[in-house]
Structures are given as C-alpha cells and as structure tokens.
Amino acid sequence: MGRTTAGAQGDVVVFLIGMRVNHFWAVHRWVPVFFAMPMMLRELNADRSLGLLHHILLTSSPRNYVVVQYWESKEKLLAYAASPQRRHHPWWARVNRYVRKSGGHVGLWHETYVVPEGSYETIYGDMPAQGLGKAYGIAGLKDGVQAQDRLKV
Fold this sequence. Notes:
elongated, alpha+beta, 5 helices, four-stranded antiparallel sheet
C-alpha cells in the first residue's frame, strides 16, 4: 500500500452532526432522533449527485453519536438541507419537535467546516484510505515531501 495522501483539490467541506442521549429511560424520545440520520444517509448514498462523498459513524460513549460527512461543496450541502423534496427538510422539522418535547432527554448539534485548499494535510501509511482519502481518493506521496510542504497556510 505504501504512503499515500488524499487526492482532494480545492476547498474541502466537512460536516459533523451528533446526538447525545441525556436520559436513557426516555427511549420514545431519542429513538426517533437516532433513526432519522440513517434514513438520510441511505438517500444520500443512493444519489451521489446530491454531493455526499463519504461518511463515518462514530461513538464516544453509549450516549454520544457522531456522523462525520465529507461533501463536494457547501452549496450541495446547503441545497440538500433546504430541499423539501429530500428527507432532511421534513425530518429536521420532525426531529426539532421531538427535541423540544423531549424535556432535555436528547441533544443535537452540528458543525460545518469549509477548509480552504492548503489548510488540510493527510497521510496514510500502509493502510487503505480513511476520511478525506476515502472521500476524494488517494494519491502517492513523493519522497522527501513533508507535512509542512502540503500545508500552505
């Protein structure tokens, strides 16, 4: 496999979205929120023209869940989020109602990053692509090229 780097060019869009179960016993309050994201991810994976390149599901504890998403552009991310023809728009309204009614049983958060070209750096040593490399493909590393050479900030 050797040493590789992500083949991304231009800006990179990373979207993080997470859920925290604050009260486990209120299953009826957090389960609908929990299952909303897989439905949206299935829709996005079925139609690659929507702009999702790759996603990673993470958990840091039995109560915290995060999805890391890599998008083609901020425009495609925002278009998907606002489109009434797609699952996000109606589900976001429904999830907001669940969260408001939950009395603090479930929490939600998200962060969006548009990372300018030259402000990200990756390296994969003898392993398949992960993260940005999985989203954008990989490229071989040139001998002698260091992280500071790939970061132009």
